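Input record, target 12 of the design panel.
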């Protein structure tokens, strides 16, 4: 359908088509749409590649672009600061000191055990909240690039995920230092289980950022609703307290139906308790990741071609 007030016969006709591989042929500048008709050429066939594989290959081909965006974000955030990335650790460490003073006595917990337990929970929770809040703004933040460069839109939530992921790795490194200082690293092989856990967390967070970004572009009250939802989830997620506290009070369903609980357990058990996580935790985390990734795939499939017109 022609834009309102445009004479189809008088307006010039342009064909936008990719040159090779996957290309976001539908990403064009919105400038001048009141004067120009756009005709999108059909996708050029991709030899021996599925669409998803080609999409991922295009993201990897542009790795220098999104890695540069991550570096720019970190430099902008910590430019001319004394501690640099250390500021990202100050909040969870300060909260750990304060909360340990109160809750270690409330739960009758040994502070040498409770401090790493609490710090690991706060670090992972801060990562998840940052991914969701920054994911909401990821497409608006990259709007100038989206209008000029036909790149896969999944790059911009990836930018937010990698930036916050660096803070997550630093925080978990501090947790390991706490454990080593207080108790020693008793079961080194259990730490190997953190590798698949980190992969699951990365895919889950990236997919979650995509979902938040697309939904927020379509419905911009999402960013404010997420803030309220996160406040509620913080208190029903075993971040400050062990999950057994809820189970003992016949509130086990809160843990069972809370997807964040499984990720917390996958991180805490090998680091704090020096044991392998149960397969049930992996199953819940994997199922949650698959569902969120499927939602992100469907949202991008439906709205990626038209996203530029909503920005």
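The sequence produced for target 12 reads:
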């Amino acid at each position: 359908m022609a834009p309102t007030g445009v004479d189809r016969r008088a307006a010039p006709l342009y064909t936008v088509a990719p040159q090779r591989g996957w290309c976001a042929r539908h990403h064009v500048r919105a400038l001048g749409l009141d004067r120009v008709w756009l005709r999108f050429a059909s996708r050029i066939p991709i030899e021996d590649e599925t669409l998803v594989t080609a999409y991922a290959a295009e993201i990897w081909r542009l790795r220098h672009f999104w890695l540069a965006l991550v570096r720019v974000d970190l430099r902008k955030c910590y430019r001319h600061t004394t501690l640099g990335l250390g500021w990202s650790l100050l909040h969870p460490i300060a909260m750990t000191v304060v909360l340990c003073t109160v809750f270690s006595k409330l739960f009758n917990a040994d502070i040498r055990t409770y401090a790493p337990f609490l710090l690991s929970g706060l670090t992972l929770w801060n990562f998840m909240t940052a991914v969701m809040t920054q994911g909401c703004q990821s497409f608006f933040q990259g709007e100038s690039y989206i209008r000029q460069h036909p790149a896969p839109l999944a790059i911009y939530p990836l930018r937010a995920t990698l930036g916050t992921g660096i803070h997550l790795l630093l925080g978990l490194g501090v947790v390991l230092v706490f454990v080593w200082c207080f108790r020693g690293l008793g079961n080194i092989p259990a730490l190997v289980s953190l590798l698949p856990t980190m992969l699951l967390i990365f895919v889950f967070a990236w997919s979650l950022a995509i979902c938040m970004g697309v939904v927020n572009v379509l419905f911009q009250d999402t960013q404010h609703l997420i803030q309220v939802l996160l406040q509620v989830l913080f208190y029903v997620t075993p971040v400050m307290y062990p999950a057994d506290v809820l189970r003992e009070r016949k509130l086990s369903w809160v843990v069972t139906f809370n997807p964040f609980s499984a990720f917390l357990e996958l991180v805490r058990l090998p680091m704090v308790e020096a044991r392998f996580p149960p397969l049930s935790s992996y199953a819940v985390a994997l199922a949650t990741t698959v569902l969120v990734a499927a939602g992100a795939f469907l949202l991008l499939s439906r709205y990626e071609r038209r996203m530029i017109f909503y920005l």
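Confidence is low (pLDDT under 50) at residues 6-49.
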